[in-house]
Design a protein that fits this description.
18 helices
Length: 400
């Protein structure tokens, strides 16, 4: 176990070095365009330092029109690290401070992941799309809190698990979809009061963090939600690919809601047919991965850093060594997409080279296919040879 831990530390250190080196070119050129796309080193950290007036120490939710487009704890991190710079033109210093903290949180996330399940943990930091996306923004904060929630869940400390899940949702919204799997497990076990308690602690902690921001400046706080509700098809999504290929899509808000509800229904049916020899935690991490995978696939946007959300859950959901092949096939499609999005954007910003719209749309479909393939392998491993009794969904049902 000690030898394994040392290997994981070394792998994480290498991944952190690769990540910093990938973004180093832009540090030297002060993030000029089209270099940020050609060299794939664009970062919200440097871009938003001036664009959201973090460089003037402005409170991130003070403006209804220019508030940061992140949940409140991420906004606080952006503002607090800006206070350490003291120079409106200190883009590089601001990036370096945040990069240092993000790399520390990567190590912390890998450590928590190792404590939960050490089997495949080294796959997380060394996946190319993971270290390639690490310094794009602050998503690793939410990843760490979500992993802490899972850690305490496995340790049967449900109040702490719910507390950290609420904190994670206040940092980035995606951990909220993990509540679906948690609710399924409580429901199947007929633990209705513990489920209500878990929901109360999660929602209560989220409210305790958010209410001071919402009451102080509602419009600034609401901007994150407003942008996501009003967003049209955007980069990386299936809907954006369809638009590039002139395929009809209809009302996106309705389509995405209906598609996600259908996906949740399918995942729920899957859960009640999973083999009984699996533990609740094994089922939870699988359902959490599938739910987040459905969420990002159906979403109106797919940003490169979303791979940080998916990969730790994928590592936890893996149970067989043979699943590693499928993992790397999926990660290969993510790496291809990571390259494609930056070269696609480069073609719009004066670069001599780039990729056409049709090829970029193709890489979106390839990425989704890779994720679907890996998900199918996980499902095949988890499913029994014969279907379970779906009447188990009903808490008062009897079984023959």
């Amino acid at each position: 176990m000690i030898k394994t831990a040392r290997v994981v530390v070394i792998v994480t250190l290498i991944a952190a070095l690769f990540s910093f080196l990938k973004f180093n070119h832009c540090r030297g050129t002060n993030w000029v365009s089209p270099d940020v796309y050609v060299h794939m080193c664009y970062s919200d950290i440097s871009a938003l330092y001036g664009a959201r007036e973090i460089n003037t120490d402005k409170w991130p939710y003070a403006s209804a029109e220019n508030a940061v487009e992140y949940p409140v704890l991420t906004g606080v991190v952006m503002w607090a690290t800006g206070l350490l710079v003291g120079d409106p033109s200190g883009y590089r210093t601001y990036f370096d401070i945040n990069a240092f903290l993000i790399i520390l949180l990567l190590f912390a996330s890998v450590f928590i992941l190792w404590r939960i399940k050490p089997d495949f943990v080294a796959l997380f930091p060394i996946a190319p799309a993971v270290f390639g996306s690490l310094l794009i923004n602050w998503d690793i904060y939410a990843v760490l809190f979500a992993l802490l929630s899972l850690y305490f869940y496995k340790d049967n400390k449900m109040d702490l698990s719910a507390l950290f899940l609420g904190i994670a949702i206040a940092t980035k919204f995606y951990p909220g979809v993990m509540l679906f799997g948690i609710a399924l497990i409580f429901w199947k076990n007929k633990s209705f009061k513990p489920l209500l308690r878990y929901l109360a602690v999660t929602i209560g902690s989220w409210l305790a963090i958010n209410l001071p921001f919402a009451t102080n400046n509602f419009d600034g706080w609401w901007r994150f939600f407003k942008l996501n509700i009003e967003r049209d098809n955007d980069l990386g999504s299936l809907w954006y690919a369809a638009a590039l290929l002139d395929l009809p899509s209809g009302n996106l808000n309705n389509l995405t809601i209906i598609a996600f509800v259908l996906a949740l229904g399918a995942i729920g049916v899957l859960y009640f047919s999973i083999t009984e020899h699996r533990t609740d935690f094994e089922n939870l991490v699988l359902i959490a991965f599938l739910t987040v995978a459905a969420f990002v696939t159906i979403s109106k946007v797919y940003s490169p850093q979303y791979i940080l959300w998916l990969t730790p859950l994928a590592v936890l959901a893996m149970t067989k060594p043979e699943e590693r092949k499928a993992f790397w096939i999926w990660q290969g499609t993510e790496a291809l997409y990571h390259f494609a999005i930056w070269q696609y954007l480069a073609s719009y910003t004066g670069a001599k080279f780039g990729i056409p719209e049709s090829f970029y749309a193709l890489t979106i479909f390839i990425r989704v296919a890779g994720l679907a393939y890996f998900s199918a392998i996980l499902i095949r491993t988890a499913r029994p040879r014969s279907q379970g009794n779906l009447l188990e969904f009903l808490p008062d049902s009897t079984h023959g």
